[in-house]
Amino acid sequence: MKLFKKRKSKYIELSSNPQNSEPRTGNLDHPDRIAIFGDLHANLEALDAVLADAKVQGVSRFICTGDVVGYGANPSECLNIIRKLDCPVVLGNHDSYAATDDSLKEFNLNAMNAILWTREHLSAEEKEWLRGLPMTVATGNLGNSFRHPPPATCHSTLVHSSLLKSESWCYIMKPEKAEVALRAQEPELVFFGHTHVPSIYSYNPKTDEFAEKFPAQEGIHQLEPGWKHLINPGSVGQPRDRDPRASYAIYDPDAGTIEIRRIEYDIVSTQAKIEAAGLPLRNAERLAKGR
Ligand code: ZN
């Protein structure tokens, strides 16, 4: 099923109808299916639920788009899980600020207070690990040996915000921003995070056509060959598309598909931990609303 409507040089708002997606069958035995996830934000219950689901789905490889900490009450626990996964991870803005003493003047009060709290609750060694995370990772040919790709054959890259301005943490929230990023994008696939909204932006360099799915609905989305794709798996621990369920994606290189999966978890427990930790209550309240 073709999911992209195409029109010359124009972004097209694709309908958010979940019926457009294939049934969620997946290929449970395929060894090369890869989970892409990020913005877990110290939400241990959501992370556990996502990893349990990925296991059921037969996923054995992971890619993390950053923001392991910030907002939530379990930064060390989440960080340790990510370290044990031993997967490609990029630095998120909350990771960076939690691991340094940089000024927080660009954050709103709730995010700022959560980062100050996180600074106090991470060990020096954990902060050092976070500071060592790269801004981008060339994840290579995901169909084969993405862990040690020769750069010349790299066709996928991982970044938290945008390849264009990774250090300034800009947000790709609008089609115009995605269009600029996609025109400059060299790899076929770029996975990013930061916006907390699952999205799939695509560009055909030969025909100069664009397509977008924002937000990308739960289910399987076919990636057109020959197009470049800019893919956000949504947020595990702080979804912001009015769906409170944890969000992540599974990439199937053989089928050329991205599956957006939404996973329920114990939000009440996460909220209770945030409250007990003395973190801003707004960080807990918004979990139930997914915004
Ligand atoms: Zn984030």
What layout of secondary structure does this protein have?
Layout: E1 34-37, H1 44-56, E2 61-64, H2 75-85, H3 93-98, H4 109-121, H5 124-131, E3 136-138, E4 156-159, H6 175-184, E5 189-191, E6 199-204, E7 209-213, E8 219-222, E9 228-232, E10 246-252, E11 257-263, H7 267-277, H8 281-289
Parallel strand pairs: 1-2, 4-5, 5-9
Antiparallel strand pairs: 1-10, 3-4, 6-7, 6-9, 8-11, 10-11
Helix pairs in contact: 7-8
Please, could you describe this protein's structure?
- The longest helix has 13 residues.
- Helix 6 links the parallel strand 4 and strand 5.
- Helix 7 runs antiparallel to helix 8.
- The N terminus is likely disordered.
- Helices cover 28% and strands 18% of the residues.
- By secondary structure, the chain is of the alpha/beta class.
- The protein has a six-stranded mixed sheet, covered by helices on one side. It has a five-stranded mixed sheet with strand order 2-1-10-11-8.
- It is globular and about 55 Å long.
- Bound molecules: zinc ion (ZN).
- The site of zinc ion has 7 residues, from loops.
Helix content: 25-40%
Globally, the shape reads globular
In order across it, which strands form the biggest sheet?
3-4-5-9-6-7
User: Secondary-structure element order, as H and E?
Assistant: EHEHHHHEEHEEEEEEEHH
Mean pLDDT: 85
Judged by helices, strands and strand pairing, the structural class is alpha/beta
Number of strands: 11
Q: What percent of residues are in strands?
A: 15-25%
Parts with pLDDT < 50 across at least 5 consecutive residues: 1-30, 144-154
Count of separate DSSP helical elements: 8
**Main sheet?**
6 strands, mixed
Radius of gyration: 18 Å
Q: Note the gap between the termini.
A: 31 Å
Hetero groups bound? zinc ion
